[in-house]
Write a structure and sequence with these properties.
Number of strands of chain A: 12
Subcellular location (chain B): Endomembrane system; Golgi apparatus membrane
Strand content of chain A: 15-25%
Order of helices and strands of chain A: HEHEHEHEEHEEEEEHHEHEH
Oligomer: homodimer
Helix content of chain A: 25-40%
Keywords (chain B): Glycoprotein, Golgi apparatus, Manganese, Membrane, Metal-binding, Signal-anchor, Transferase, Transmembrane, Transmembrane helix
Catalytic activity (chain B): 3-O-(beta-D-galactosyl-(1->3)-beta-D-galactosyl-(1->4)-beta-D-xylosyl)-L-seryl-[protein] + UDP-alpha-D-glucuronate = 3-O-(beta-D-GlcA-(1->3)-beta-D-Gal-(1->3)-beta-D-Gal-(1->4)-beta-D-Xyl)-L-seryl-[protein] + UDP + H(+)
GO biological process, one term (chain B): carbohydrate metabolic process
Strand order of the largest sheet of chain A: 3-2-1-4-10-6-11
InterPro entries (chain B): Glyco_trans_43 (IPR005027), Nucleotide-diphossugar_trans (IPR029044)
Largest interface: A-B, 83 and 82 residues
Radius of gyration of chain A: 36 Å
Largest sheet of chain A: 7 strands, mixed
Number of helices of chain A: 9
């Protein structure tokens, strides 16, 4: 009986202890499970975070490789630039390229005044690092300036600019492509802020131009955010008394109005108006550059280099080595 | 007795089952622990990976921000440039800045020809984004060009270049600082390859210059890797018949020869020689630009803009708004 009681007691004690242990285990197991699932959660979160960082890193690496000139969301600036062969041409294109390399989404449309594309320009464009289109069209004989003509005698670059407009109309889509068209001369000087300003032009935007028209600057006069007249000495009554360098046109406006182009037969000073009349009224113009009070582009001109000694050499039958490109 | 037996049996069964269960739990607990510790391991690994990606990302972001103009291992190009106030000055500086922004380790030493530093240049340099030093010194009265003087009549920029040299000697260390000194005029045109070429000059390096001396180009004539004479029309017998834009000097050579500077009182065309004679012989010159057969810099000059209409306005007491900086 005693033994039985002891055994029973033993078993009872065991029963109690084991139940307790089991219960404890079950409770803590829940905890462990719980903890484990917590760790699982943390793990999931960490993994998600990790993927997030991987994606950011990949994007940053793409940014680093991406030429700084491209950003799909920005409207493209199409710069239509007539050019012609002369001694300073390569120098001009060289410094222009250095400017344009700083401008995002820039498309250089270079139009040579010639029957065929020259080697110099072709070679130059091939390595300039800027998105470009190379065109050419020769100014008709009777419209060409002679050596001794003053530079304002005949309108220059007209056919070339129109060829640029034609290219845009043949290659870009109405309603789809976003851009701004700017007529840039190859001897002007452009600040980088100018391109920032013109980029979001909706219709036609305007701004001051330095060192033009015999003045320090010419500019649109702005009142209450609208252009009301032109600050210029010569013929301020012109519809658009503004230099070629002083305005930009939204690409869609160009594409929607295929008849808008520059006129060859035009009174002196009316070249810009001959295009803009088709596109916009003075009232609709968008004034930029701080209500047209800042000069962000200059109508610089480069001196024609003296070639006196070169000519002596040529006459003596010993011209400078033509294989050395200047 | 039967009841007791049943109880005993019950308890025995319970004993067996509970022991079994406990054992099972213990074994699986190990598994769970084990699994949990596996998850912990995975967690630790993932966390480490995460930190690794975070670090890579941070490094990449620093790369993106780092100005591409700095690279501690490259010798610095010190461009000493005289400048003077005139209408086209801001335009010239603007396009020069766009060029120099592409050049690594570039230090622009701009020396105004004036008694005091002008607001225009001070403001310009403050935002140009290029490492610079702003100096000024006025050309003595009798050495100044008059309006009607041809540009070659008196040597120009002499005092300004010498001040630039002085600054180098006062601020950089013989035997320690690595660099190249280039005398750049503010109306020339520079290709980017030019700076790559000149950067590793040991003594004095030379190369062709376009559109100078009345020729398409002037250049050193190189035979067997050495300069033997000068290809130029005018006075090719000069010790260094080369334009200011056509050579560069190792910084240490400048620092080691403190007496070497440009002479004010010098025959026309001998300005460059007046410095180089102190520094090097023709035989020691380092020809660059493909044995001096490539034109990488042009001696362009910018036209003085006509101010006829501006002058009319001034005479009429209505000058253009001087608050608009050009």
């Amino acid at each position: 009986m005693v033994r039985l009681l002891s055994l029973k007691k033993l078993l009872l004690v065991y029963f109690v202890m084991s139940t307790g242990a089991l219960l404890w285990l079950i409770l803590n197991f829940g905890l462990f499970c719980h903890a484990s699932s917590k760790e699982e959660e943390t793990l999931l979160t960490k993994t998600k975070e990790l993927r997030h960082w991987e994606e950011r890193l990949r994007r940053r690496e793409r940014d680093l490789q991406k030429k700084p000139q491209e950003d799909a969301s920005l409207p493209t600036i199409y710069a239509i630039m007539p050019t012609h062969t002369r001694h300073v041409q390569k120098a001009e294109l060289t410094r222009l390229a250095q400017t344009f390399l700083h401008v995002k989404n820039f498309h250089w449309i270079l139009v040579e005044d010639s029957d065929s594309q020259t080697d110099l320009v072709t070679r130059f464009l091939a390595t300039c690092g800027i998105k470009h289109t190379h065109l050419n069209i020769k100014t008709p004989e009777n419209y060409q300036l002679k050596e001794t003509d003053p530079n304002w005698l005949k309108p220059r670059g007209v056919e070339q600019r129109n060829a640029g407009l034609q290219w845009l109309r043949e290659n870009l889509d109405v309603g789809r492509d976003k851009g701004v068209v700017y007529f840039a001369d190859d001897d002007n000087t452009y600040s980088l802020q100018l391109f920032d300003e013109m980029r979001h032009t909706r219709g036609v935007s305007v701004w001051p131009v330095g060192l033009v028209g015999g003045m320090r600057f010419e500019r649109p006069v702005v009142e209450h955010g609208k252009v009301v007249r032109w600050y210029t000495y010569w013929r301020p009554e012109r519809p658009f008394a503004i230099d070629m360098a002083g305005f930009a046109v939204n690409l869609q406006l160009i594409l929607q109005k295929p008849q808008a182009k520059f006129e060859l037969r035009v009174r002196r000073g009316y070249l810009e108006s001959s295009l803009l009349e088709h596109l916009v009224t003075m009232e609709e113009l968008e004034p930029l550059a701080d209500n047209c009070t800042k000069v962000l582009v200059w109508h610089t001109r480069t001196e024609k280099p003296k070639m006196k000694q070169e000519n002596y050499l040529i006459q003596a039958g010993r011209p400078s080595d033509p294989r050395i490109e200047v």
